[in-house]
Amino acid sequence: VIRAGVRRAFRLALRRRDRWEREVEEEIKLHLALRAEQLVAQGFSPDAASAEAIRRFGPLDDARARLIDSAGHREEQMQRTEFLSDLRQDLAFALHTMRRQRGWTAITILTFALGIGATTAVFSVVSSLLLHPLPYPHADRIVYVEQEPSEGNNTGIQVTITPSASVVRAWQAGARSFDALEGMRISPRSLRPRGGGEPESIVSAEIFPTFMTFAGERPLLGRTFTASDIERGERTVLLGESFWRTRFGADSAVLGRAITLSDTTYQVIGVMRASLRIPGFSTGPTDVWLPLDVRDDKLGISLIGRLRPGATPAAAMRELDSLFARSAGFTDRKIPFRARITTPARRLEFYDSLVMLTVAVALVLLVACANVAHLLIARSATRHREMAIRAALGAGRTRLLRQLLTESLMLAAVGTLIGVTMGWAGMRGLVALRPASLDALDAARLDSTTLAIAVAVAALSGIAFGIVGLLQSARGTTHDSLKSGAPTTSQSRSTHRARAVLVVSEMALSATLLVGATMLVRSVINLQRSDLGFEPKGLYYLPLSISRDRFPTAAARAGFAAEYMARLRALPAVRAAAMARVEPGARSFSVGRLEVQGETPPPSSSSSFIDVNQVEAGYFGTMRMAIREGATFSDTSAGGGQVIVNARFARAHWGNRSALGRRIRVTQQGNEPWLTIVGVVSDASTNGPGAESSAPILYTPLDDSARPKVLIRADGDIGALAAALAPLTSLGLERTPRIESVERRIARALAAPRFVTVLLTVFTVLALLLAGIGLYGVMAHSVTQQTREIGIRVALGASGAQIARRVVGRGVALAAAGAALGVFGASVGTKLIEGELYGVTRSDLVSFVAAGVVLLGAALAACVVPARRALAVDPATAIRAD
Amino acid sequence: MPSPRLPLLKGTLDLLVLRALSWSPMHGFEIVAWLERAANGSLDVDDSALYQAVYRLEARHLLAADWGVTENNRRARYYKLTAAGRAHLRAETRNWLAYADTVTTILTIATGARSAEST
Question: Model-level pTM?
Answer without folding.
Answer: 0.63
